[in-house]
Amino acid sequence: MWKRANLNRFFVALLLTAVGFATGILGFMTIEGYNFLDAVYMTMITISTVGFGELHPLSAAGRLFVSVYIFFNLLVIAYLVSVLTTYIFDGELRTIFKMFKTDQEIRGYHDHVIVCGFGRNGSKAYHELRANGARVVVVEQNQELLRDESGAGTIPTVVGDATTDETLLAAGIHRARALITALPKDADNVFVALTARELNPGLKIIARASLKTSESKLLRAGADSVVMPDEIGGSHMANLVMRPEVIRFLEMMNGLGPNKLRLEELSYREIRREWQGLSIRELDIRSRTGATVIGLKQSTGEFIVSPSADTRPVAGDVLLVLGTEEQIQALAVQFRV
Fold first, then answer.
1. Could you say which of 7, 194, 235, 252 has the lowest number of CB atoms within 10 Å?
2. pTM: predicted TM-score of the whole model, two decimal places
C-alpha cells in the first residue's frame, strides 16, 4: 500500500493550491462580476505572476482582493515547490515507487511468514527464515531499523503498526502460513496475536515475551508458542558452565561455528511414493545421504527420540533428520517428491 508513504505534506500542498485557485475564481466573479472563463483567466495570470494586464480596470475592492490573494498564493506556491523539491531530490518519490513495487510483490506471496518487529530478535528470525528458503514479509514502524540493515538486499516490508488490521492485511495475513511477533512490548505482542488469530484462524503464531506472566496471556490470545529470549539466554550461559560440549553441539545445529549442522523435517507426505511404507532401516537414510534420523513425530503428536530401525513411518508422521548442509541437500534429492 504505497499510500503508507509520507504523502501528507504533498496532499496538503495540493489542497492549498486547489483552495487558492477556487478562491481566486470565486473572488473575481463576486467582486468584479467576471464570468467563469474570465475569472479563471484572471486567477491564472495572478497566480503565475506573468504580468499580463487586467481584462478591465479593477475596483478598489478588487485591488485589495488581488493584493491579499497574490501574497497568499506566493506562500502556497513556495510551499508546493519546496514539497516537490523534497520528493524529487531527497528520494521520497523513489521511496513511494519502491513501496508500490513492494506491495505488488507481497500481493503475490502465498505460504509466507510475517515477522512483526525488526529489532534484535525479529532481524535474527528474518535472516534464519531467509537462509532456509522461506518467503518473509517484515512489518516495522521504524524505518531506521531497516535502513541500518547492511547487505540484506531488498527486504519486503510493510511500514506500519503491526497491531492494526490494515497493516496485517497489507502483509498478506490471509495467505501466510506463520507469523512471528517480536515487538518490544509484551502488550503489543498480545494484541498482534489476538488480531492475527482473528484474521487467519489457521495461522501458526510464534510470540516473543519478556515477562513470564505474559506467556499465559499470549497463549490465550492465540499464540501457538511463546519464546522468552532472556530466559533462554540465562539458561544458555549456565549450561555453558555445566555442559559446555552439549551447548557447542546445539550451536552447531543452530548454524553457529565452522562445522554447521542442520536439523531438517521430512514428513511422510513429502517422501517419494517408492519410499513410502518402508521402515527406517529400509530407507537407509544414513548410508544414502550421510544424514541421521534422530527423532520421529507420530501423527498422534507423540515424539520418539532415536526411533527403532524397524519403525515404519505412516501418514502424518514426520522424521527429524540431522546432517550437514550437503547431507540435507542429498536427502532432499533422494527422498523428497
1. 235
2. 0.64
